[in-house]
Amino acid sequence: MTPFDALRRVPTATITTMLLKKGIRHCWMNGAMPLAAGYPRVVGAAFTLRFVPVREDLATPESWAKPISTRAAIEAMPEGCIAVADAMGVATAGIFGDILVMRMARRNVTALVTDGVIRDKVGVLAAKLPVWCQGTAAPASVNGLTFVGWNEPIACGGCAIFPDDVIVADDDGAVVIPKDLVDFVAAEGEEHERYESWVVSEVERGVPLPGLYPPNDDAKARYAAWKAKRS
Amino acid sequence: MTPFDALRRVPTATITTMLLKKGIRHCWMNGAMPLAAGYPRVVGAAFTLRFVPVREDLATPESWAKPISTRAAIEAMPEGCIAVADAMGVATAGIFGDILVMRMARRNVTALVTDGVIRDKVGVLAAKLPVWCQGTAAPASVNGLTFVGWNEPIACGGCAIFPDDVIVADDDGAVVIPKDLVDFVAAEGEEHERYESWVVSEVERGVPLPGLYPPNDDAKARYAAWKAKRS
Amino acid sequence: MTPFDALRRVPTATITTMLLKKGIRHCWMNGAMPLAAGYPRVVGAAFTLRFVPVREDLATPESWAKPISTRAAIEAMPEGCIAVADAMGVATAGIFGDILVMRMARRNVTALVTDGVIRDKVGVLAAKLPVWCQGTAAPASVNGLTFVGWNEPIACGGCAIFPDDVIVADDDGAVVIPKDLVDFVAAEGEEHERYESWVVSEVERGVPLPGLYPPNDDAKARYAAWKAKRS
Amino acid sequence: MTPFDALRRVPTATITTMLLKKGIRHCWMNGAMPLAAGYPRVVGAAFTLRFVPVREDLATPESWAKPISTRAAIEAMPEGCIAVADAMGVATAGIFGDILVMRMARRNVTALVTDGVIRDKVGVLAAKLPVWCQGTAAPASVNGLTFVGWNEPIACGGCAIFPDDVIVADDDGAVVIPKDLVDFVAAEGEEHERYESWVVSEVERGVPLPGLYPPNDDAKARYAAWKAKRS
Amino acid sequence: MTPFDALRRVPTATITTMLLKKGIRHCWMNGAMPLAAGYPRVVGAAFTLRFVPVREDLATPESWAKPISTRAAIEAMPEGCIAVADAMGVATAGIFGDILVMRMARRNVTALVTDGVIRDKVGVLAAKLPVWCQGTAAPASVNGLTFVGWNEPIACGGCAIFPDDVIVADDDGAVVIPKDLVDFVAAEGEEHERYESWVVSEVERGVPLPGLYPPNDDAKARYAAWKAKRS
Amino acid sequence: MTPFDALRRVPTATITTMLLKKGIRHCWMNGAMPLAAGYPRVVGAAFTLRFVPVREDLATPESWAKPISTRAAIEAMPEGCIAVADAMGVATAGIFGDILVMRMARRNVTALVTDGVIRDKVGVLAAKLPVWCQGTAAPASVNGLTFVGWNEPIACGGCAIFPDDVIVADDDGAVVIPKDLVDFVAAEGEEHERYESWVVSEVERGVPLPGLYPPNDDAKARYAAWKAKRS
Q: Chain E contact for F120, CB < 8 A?
């Protein structure tokens, strides 16, 4: 099983706890929440997009035909990537609308993650590309943002994202795993999930949490026994 | 077809792009989002309502019986209008509750739009008046706001709204069209929608966006041919 | 009927108006909204929890085994209480996840209310404990918060909450009733609800609001007659 | 001595405490602080100015020549008034610059108070008109604001200001006194100041605060004696 | 030399860098800046004060005479301590005014630090107690805050402060040192200051920063030589 | 006279008005204000610096020795440039301290402009490099920021800054002039200043503003006469 396959079974909540073991507290992107209910957990390498504030002479519908444009960026996205857009948290201009999202879906991009918002909500939902964002606004990106490039380090929701970091997103939001820590998080995350599933079964039979979660020696022994029996 | 009929077929996302052609970037009301899913797109002339912060000696339940009150304002609303309330973005006092909204529905007001919040959410939804707002709070308007008048210029969600400007609201939020630009937006918006529906069909068959959206000469020619065939 | 039974029939919107009669404007907790639709209205005595910002040497997974920990606090919660957590409005660290919420449900806690966020959203919903909060985040509380104690006065969503104040929460959010005012609010709230149900029937038959809500002498007489007939 | 003369000797801190006796908590304008050190305390009737957000077709340098303009408003200001401008707290567009402030000074306006900012700081200081504001920005009002009128009720820094309310401003900021409460505040404020000056003398000789401020019976008696001796 | 004496010579900027070596990033209190220029650097054990939001029935001038009051807290402050007040960042109600600050000065309190604001600015400055705060407001604490106790863990400006942590404040603001790390910070801080004074002399003679700050082997050797010569 | 020489005589307030003639409203950097009083107006080509949020494994004191570091960036700054740093408005980590600013001064950099804050305030002031920023914080950049590069397009205070745009800063803050508009702004700005100096003389002799500023035909004629006489 690849690390990406493993990560598809590890909730983002658990990933943040694994990263905290390595001293990393800034890994969950503030504002990037699922646009719709029911998305599967997604995993992919980050393909970054960067916006700066609107400059009225540059951020125009005409800019959409330039070599450095959101259109060109989409054509550069590799299959399976997760596009992560730094919109500086701007909530009044939709970075992408239905047509761009349709094209991304067509190119087999895995998901779109941003600390900004999208537009054409109905059409974006119809395009079936999973989106994590802050919400919806009617105006186009050029109303408030100037697109400046792709595959650079970016900020997104209070996190630093570097190209090829790994993104995981689910109902609790979107997290970034530095690429050197992907194997660690995948391995530790799986074991942590196993442990938590045992804890859940203990809570269901009425065991109080102190001594159980985190475990004291007795709980550790009972967990070890349970785990041995399962394998 | 009247301009209002035309606008009912033009998404707010498109309207903002048409207004940008006229240099207008402040037209989408920040914070005014649909209270429930599934509202139709609404169009109507703005009937404005204005609040200032609470003054404890004035903002009392007793004030509701005064000549300048939200009750009196509702009786002044013409059929078909869209009430737009400047709540200064205050999210802790509901400007209207179920009873006031029921009365507005009864008077055939088209919709309520505000950068503030409503209260009695269950009752407001039951009243069937479409509402665009920032959310819900339990306290009444007098908890945080003083009502001062109607049919004056107001601020709403970062936009200037003048009486008789035209409001359009849908899933992407609510926009204001200055009344002198209504015909322009209705006409341009329809053509833009036609063009985007052709673009969607192109994207569906795998055409990349650069050269298509916005169109280069080849795309323009293909679009012209498609359009000619349709009419 | 106990005051708690009465309060279960009084909307939070009405409670805030009754408290305003006593000069209390700070009673609705900003940011504490239902995590899911369809919760019943809940009523319970406040059991408070207090967090301060993260101190990296203290806010660690190891801290979860300490005597002053969220785990120990849960074991101290009496049946039927409503746990109210002061998370200082922090939206980037989930104060509780699925396992803690499961344990609270198991202990027959009535609800959890916070100005912060929860994590493990899917699991929290599955645990069936009603939750009022600001939203969801993946990181654990120790990512951004240090737990310091329970049953102390706290801040929550701009309100002061003292242990044994009474909490009521419904679709419009969560309110706090100072314990000395519970009887007053329960009694006045019931009468107010009766009056509003008559107003609704009047609005349904087309009566305008001025003179009706608030009532002039004629409306008062008609209401008295209606009330007499009902009893 | 007129109430205005009395108020010139009552600090804004004391005025807020007097207003609290009448249940008024919203009287200090958030964001309106002295632009320079050393202004005298100022007192005057409010002359209100109102801005809404920029509409690009209206908020232009050309608008400065219209009948409803900041220029026309200044000519309508009576001698001795305090101009209070509702800038919705916008900090990125200076409502007035040096030339407008010079003209206000020339017309014997007492002061300018706003929750927004001014521009041309050096020139504004040179014009010698005392200004309470949030700071300074280079852009003109039309960069972010549309002027819509004067002598209407406004919001300023979280307070409601009605024309002819009385404004007092000093080093602690600017407060509004509802016009019906001016006599009360002036009278009570003077007595409160007298009492605090006695408290200061007590603290200077080492008396602890409990029992002194607020006074117990003993302290009340000592104060009465001190006051009798002084008069 | 005591650690406190040593810390009086270590800038807060350096202290934050020493704490980062121990993994502590949350140690500088956001919003707590010097009220006046020219204060000496202050060092003292934290004496904490805690406020929650206003509850109108509790936060009244009458509350000032209660056993749990700011007045009583001041009488409990030991000589030399630094009072640190959690005002939840509220900027619209001054936690202390001139009289309370005078009493603190009289009791030989070293300084007052808060993420809120003070009132009676002129009088507070006259009292000569150094104050780090967010600014000034005219209203009293009871206008927006309820005082609930002292010597408890608190939040202040995004930091956790525990009683007996050590506070250092200077022109760059106020920092908290966990009490177990005071000796470490004092010792490392002194050496770091020595090193930086050498770096300054290098920069003055035109040495570029790469290789110097942080030092490469050559720079380390030169610094060692300089240090040896000095001692 | 070069355009830069001309711009040294044009206030930033006037520059924003000239840019508005070209439809540019986003040119004044929110948050970048003079650190000290009395700086001369500065003009220079923008040298951009870019930060993203802290990633704990990258933003460490060790990072200061890497090839992409603030140290290396300073060595790349050309004489006379104005360094503009995108700190994403973060106010809790000082991007530069005294030593880095000393080195910039030594390299004859004209000024530092940022939407963030500096540290070591006393030392920065002593270094005599003019600084426009949001304020001061004790922690180093690595406490909250990761440096990622220089001479890229950046955001600063809500503006887009491209390398070689021209920056002008004075008491009203800092503005960016797109490089293609520098000649226009310099020429128009000078004439505008001349006109305003005449307006000031008119206001001084008591002329009302309507008809004067902006000028009607009569005022235009009088200004033309005044101008003719001067040259």
A: yes
Phi, psi (deg, nearest 5) at residue F67: -60, -40
The shortest CB-CB distance from A203 to any of C99, C122, C140 is to C99
Compute the mean pLDDT over every residue in chain A, rounded to the nearest whole number.
96
Helix (H, G, I), strand (E, B) or coil at E6: helix
Give how far Cα F155 sits from Cα of A154, F135, F187, Å. Answer: 12, 18, 27
Q: What residues form DSSP beta bridges with A49?
A: A85, A150
Residue contact D15–E121, C-beta within 8 A: no
Strands E111-114 and E131-133: parallel
C95 with C74: CB under 8 angstroms?
A: no
Phi-psi region of C21 (alpha: psi -120 to 50; beta: other; left: phi over 0): alpha
Reported as a single tens digit per residue, the pLDDT across E197-221 is 999 999 999 999 999 999 999 999 9
What is Dmax (Cα atoms) for chain A? 68
pLDDT number for residue F61: 76
Q: Is D148 on the interface with F (CB under 8 A)?
A: no
Separation CA C192–CA C9 (nearest Å): 11
Nearest-CB residue to D28 (from E69, E75, E137): E137
Chosen for mutation from E56, E58, E159, E177 (greatest number of chain C CBs closer than 10 Å) is E56
Residues D145 and D52 sit within 8 Å (Cβ to Cβ): yes
Residue A62: band (very low, low, confident or very high) from pLDDT cuts 50, 70, 90: confident
Closest alpha carbon to C8 in C129, C194, C199, C169: C169
Q: How far, in Å, are A58, A84, F100 from residue A68 at the CA level?
A: 11, 17, 34
For CA atoms B202, B208, B211, B217, the dihedral sign is: negative
How many CB atoms sit inside 10 A of residue D204's CB? 11
Please say whether the beta carbons of B161 and B113 come within 8 A: no
Q: Does C106 touch chain A (CB under 8 A)?
A: yes
Residue C41 DSSP one-character state: P
Q: What are phi and psi of B111, to 5 degrees?
A: -165, 165
Q: What is the ipTM of this complex?
A: 0.95
Q: Are E136 and D173 in contact (CB < 8 Å)?
A: yes
> And the tokens for A135?
């919400």
Q: How confident is the model at residue A85 (pLDDT cuts 50, 70, 90)?
A: very high
- Chain-centroid distance of CA C139 in Å reads 24
- Find the radius of gyration of the CA atoms of chain A: 20
- How far is residue B13 from each of residues A85, A128, A173, B19, measured CA to CA in Å? 20, 19, 26, 10
What is the reported pLDDT for A66? 86
Q: Which residues of B touch A94 (CB under 8 A)?
A: 13, 172
- Residue E59: the pLDDT is 76
Please give the biggest Cα pair distance in chain C: 68
Alpha-carbon gap, residue F204 to F202, rounded angstroms: 5
Closest Cβ opposite residue F91 in set E25, E30, E204: E30
In angstroms, the separation between the Cα of residue E61 and the nearest Cα of chain C is 15
Q: How far is E194 from chain C (nearest CA, A)?
A: 28
Q: Which sign, positive or negative, has the C-alpha torsion D190, D191, D193, D198?
A: positive
Whether the CB of A10 is below 8 Å from some CB of chain F: the reply is: no
Selecting from E71, E91, E119 the residue whose C-beta is nearest the C-beta of D13 gives E119
Strand ranges for chain D from DSSP E = 33-34, 42-53, 82-86, 111-114, 131-133, 145-150, 154-156, 159-161, 166-170, 173-177
**C25-69 confidence digits (pLDDT tens):** 999 999 999 999 999 999 999 999 999 999 998 877 777 788 889
How is residue C163 written in tokens? 């242990």
Do the beta carbons of residue C126 and residue C149 sit within 8 Å?
no
Residue whose entry in the numeric block shows the structure tokens 């703005």: B46
